[in-house]
Amino acid sequence: MFLKWLRPGAALQGLHPWVVSAGLALALSTLGNAPFWWALSQLPEINSLRAYAGLIGIWAALTLLMWVFVNVVIWPWWRKPAGVVLLVMSMTASYFMAMYGVVIDPTMVANAMHTNTAEVRDLLSLTLLLTVVIGVGVPGLWWWRLQPQAGIGWQRWTHQLGAVVLGSGLAAVLLLLVFQDLAPLMRNHTNLRYMVNPFNTVYAVGRLAQNNQAQQQQPLQTIGDDASARWPDAKAAPLLVLVVGETARAANFGIAGYSRATTPQLQALQAEGDLYYFNQVQSCGTNTEISVPCMFSHQDRKANAKRTMNYESLLDVLRKAGWAVLWLDNQSGCKGVCDRIAHFDTSNLKHPFLCAAGECWDEIMLDGLTERIALLAPERRARGTVVVMHQMGSHGPAYYKRSPSNQKKFLPECTSNALSSCNAQALLNAYDNSIAYTDYFLGQAVDWLKTQDQPTALWYISDHGESLGENGIYLHGMPYKMAPKDQTHVPMALWVSQAMRQHWAVDDACLRTQLEKPWSHDNLFHSMLGSADIQTGLYQPEMDITRACRH
Ligand SMILES: [Zn+2]
To answer: Among 78-82, 181-185, 301-305, 460-464, whose mean pLDDT is lowest?
Structure first.
């Protein structure tokens, strides 16, 4: 009977609407949720006959809920495309969940919406194509060719509303039966909540739209209107470089104790006595969308997670204090923090060597830097200058694209973006090469700073870490509470020139006592204000990492 349906020209007419919608519900709850069932079946709690019976109960309840959902959102006028959209949503989400161990929550969807073409290109693969063709093609074809009983007028309503009432009732009974087993599972494994397709995506999109709307209704809140900076001696205006790293996790930094020599440049600077590496730094978020605005925010991580207000950033405060500020971006933009200051996108420049591979290496941000800084207002530069460099860093999953071919220390490299299909060592090699390139870039930046005849310093801090297959998890973007340390433990370093050492009157021994303390992105706002010696009521000295060690 099923084969007859697939035959070209055969009309699939006259099926009861309940059967049709139940077919789609079954495809969504089973095929469209394969990673959810896999994750459930792997849990240690699933070890008895009762547990397996519970699983079947959960599956039946989910199918019924899916049936209710289908009958709520799909009406005859848009039946065909709507069903295919649901299948595409579920299968694509399933693919990324299975391939990268991610879950679908509001920040993950925000990330997906703000991505650029290069990032999308990096994620496309043959496996994705196959998943969509099989997962959407087969049930989609079936769905498209079905012709349920038309029903007239009120009949449609009774069919669909009847399904909603009946489905909800049966699902409620089933859920009550399995509640005792289900509740602890959901409590102990919170990631499961974000794994049910397509409810996770629907919830995330709705939540995001709500937040965006709330935020857009808020006017921009000014901060730091009282900011002021002291005038330095002539020719002694400080120059601070802040390198915002991308996807660099502390665990793979040689300077942090990693077994491989991924950071020879940083360690050489450390041996010279001018570089301080902070060993216990937590990121604000697990993705760029959350972390970057949070790093430049006067509020801490918890306030940022809840906030609907739209505030100015650290860079606005520096600008108000009269400093020259420049944002160089070699990635996907500054997420709003540089909106009111000079910024320049280096990622699409044409440079015969630095951009030969289609994308620009992070070194491009050092190319012509003197000239770019010279374009900033002289009266501001006489006070001081902050240059932020937003790296491409270790952006995945195509790590192998993040280091030039003549600088690859660790071979062979994984060159697929379907990370879970790669050899673990080759994947690590590609990632470590990207860290080694960041180390090289930081070395180049410090070399450039050493040639400047003014006090200079460089802060480096990554926006979040990365998972490289530990427990089947890849990439980043896990909800913060359940994120593994790999995604939140980030590297941070401070390099100080001799002239800056005097300008700040740094106590070296004191600074060394700060290295093992638990810092976080929350400290960046105050540490940058302190580094620039800016007075404002917003500044909290106890949050400034170097405050106690400058005199
Ligand atoms: Zn990032």
So the answer is: 181-185
40 Cα: distance to centroid of ligand 1 (angstroms): 30
Judgement on whether residues 261 and 407 belong to the same structural domain of the protein: yes
pLDDT tier for residue 9 given thresholds of 50, 70 and 90: very low
Question: Where do the DSSP E strands lie in 296-384?
Answer: 310-311, 324-329, 342-345
Distance of CA 115 from the midpoint of ligand 1 (Å): 11
Lowest mean pLDDT: which of 220-224, 403-407, 417-421, 464-468?
417-421
Q: Which tokens sit at 87?
A: 């299948």
Q: How far is CA 337 from the centre of its chain?
A: 16
In a 3-state reduction of DSSP, which class is residue 276? strand
Rounded to two decimals, what is the model's pTM? 0.85
Instruction: Give strand pairing partners of 277.
Output: 493
What tokens appear for 119 in the block? 């990032």
390 Cα to the center of ligand 1, angstroms: 10
Tell me how far the alpha carbon of residue 438 lies from the centroid of ligand 1, in angstroms. 14
Ligand 1 center from residue 71 Cα (angstroms): 39
CA of 291 to the centre of ligand 1 (A): 7
Q: What does the buried/exposed string (b/e) look like for 4-22 if buried means 16 or more CB atoms within 10 Å of the residue's CB?
A: eeeeeeeebeeeebbebbb
Domains of the chain: total: 2
Grouping H, G, I as helix, E, B as strand and the rest as coil, residue 219 is coil
For residue 12, name the pLDDT band (cuts at 50, 70, 90). low
Query: Is residue 461 classed as helix, strand or coil in its secondary structure?
Result: strand
Same domain, 208 and 227: no
- CA separation for the pair 249, 435 (Å, rounded): 9
Among residues 164, 194, 212, which one ends one of the domains?
A: 212
- Residue type for 502, please? Q
Domain region containing 499: 220-549
Centroid of ligand 1 to alpha carbon of 252 (angstroms):
16
Q: What single string gives the DSSP state of each residue in 78-110?
A: GHHHHHHHHHHHHHHHHHHHHHH-----HHHHH
| Boundary of a domain, candidates 152, 177, 212 | 212
Asked if 240 and 180 sit in the same domain, the reply is no
Q: How far is the CA of 287 from the centre of ligand 1 (A)?
A: 5
- Cα of 284 to ligand 1 centre, how many Å? 11
Ligand 1 mean position, distance from CA 245 (Å): 8
How far is CA 266 from each of CA 428, 436, 450, 491, rounded to the nearest angstrom? 20, 10, 14, 11
Interacting residues of 30 by C-beta distance below 8 A, sequence separation 6+? 37, 59, 63
- For residue 310, the cross-strand partners are 220
Q: How far is the CA of 300 from the centre of ligand 1 (A)?
A: 18
DSSP conformational letter for 231? P
